Amino acid sequence: MFVILGNKLFLGIKSELSINNPNINSLNELDQFIEQHKGEYMLCFISYDLKNSFETLKSDNDDNIQFPVIKCIVPAEIKTLSSLNDLIDKNLPKHEEIIFQPALNKVEYQTCINKIKQHIQLGDIYETNFCYQWTAKTTSFNGVSIYKKLKQLTEAPFAVYADLEDHIVISASPERYLKKTGKQLLSQPIKGTARRGRNKKEDNTILEQLKNDPKERTENIMIVDLVRNDLSKIAVKNSVKVKNLCAVHTFKNIHQMISDVSCTLKEGILFSEVLRATFPMGSMTGVPKIRAMKLMEKYESSKRGLYSGSIGLISPNGDFDMSVIIRTLLYNKKNQCASFSVGGAITIDSDPLKEYEETITKASSILEACK
């Protein structure tokens, strides 16, 4: 095992919990593993379909990556990285372009969006996150080279490279799911995306348009309300707060609208209780949450797996920091399938063509990194 997360390098496996099929005991098993290894660092990979273990939900779509529902690892060795280049520049094999095929073309995508908007018009849901997958078969997957290029393209704050037994995970996520510091819990949902401009003037214009776009603000506020409701289940009364509502953050390759939602945790809240209250995260589901997830199972053709899930690190003192798995490339070493997914929030005001163009913006950095 070889994982880069932040400025840390994690090597080898001291102990591991791996659950392939979610069941009613999955969260209990995770709590037990965390309790057994209290005082140690733990890497956590949590797939979207963990939801099936505590909600009346299922996932029957195709799964070409087959990542475990839970993988929690106590690493054998931890090092601090002073320079990424020192670690991965040496003796890289030649990188060959990977050609991905999307599950939906432009017309098919817009057709799906119009069908979803019909559900919104009927009042079934108010907002949802619709995703589709891009896949490729490749026998020459150079994960380290792709990670290095993707990191340079995005400078994503939650970048992860994980070379595991059966999979490689390359994440350039800009989104935080949850950060626990003592009794404080912070969520930073993203809703609202715009490309970077070709020059400073165009870039500032695009940023201002995003900041003042009523549709994007509505999307973000709906999800903030969902996150507030989720956190209230595990929070001290009246401690849920919203700061920086609909603030626009600029990354190297993209503009994103991000809000901060925080709370003070009740005494004795377990990691599993945090997940049960908040997972999957609001930005990847919709409003109402359960109904949105059920509908997306119908309209999406592939199982989300680790995409829409989370990767993070639990510290020895019980604090943790978890990202939302978006802008992430996954590779199954056994069947030699590489895939990533893109999606976006759909509301009654969504323009199907603009929504499609937004997914292409989100896909662009991974496609570029794989050239």
What does this structure look like?
With 371 residues, the protein is of the alpha+beta class. It has one domain (2-81, 102-369): 4-Layer Sandwich (Anthranilate synthase). It has helices at residues 26-36, 84-88, 106-122, 143-154, 200-212, 214-232, 271-278, 289-299, 352-369, and strands at residues 2-5, 8-19, 42-46, 70-80, 101-102, 127-137, 158-163, 167-173, 176-181, 184-188, 190-195, 241-250, 254-264, 286-287, 310-314, 320-324, 328-332, 337-346. It has an 18-stranded antiparallel β-sheet that branches. Strand 17 and strand 18 (337-346) form a beta hairpin. Helix 3 packs across helix 9.
Question: What is the gist of this entry?
Answer:
31% of the residues lie in helices and 33% in strands. The chain has nine helices and 18 strands.
Give me the Rg, rounded.
20 Å
Give the second-level CATH assignment, the architecture.
Answer: 4-Layer Sandwich
Low-confidence stretches: none
CATH-defined superfamily: Anthranilate synthase
Fold-level CATH name:
Anthranilate synthase
Number of helices: 9
Indicate the multimeric state: single chain
Q: Write down how many β-strands occur, each being a DSSP E stretch of 2 or more residues.
A: 18
Assign the CATH class.
Alpha Beta
Percent strand: 25-35%
Mean pLDDT: 95
**What is the helical fraction, as a range of percent?**
25-40%
Shape, principal axes of CA atoms: globular
Largest sheet: 18 strands, antiparallel
Instruction: Report the span from N to C terminus.
Output: 26 Å
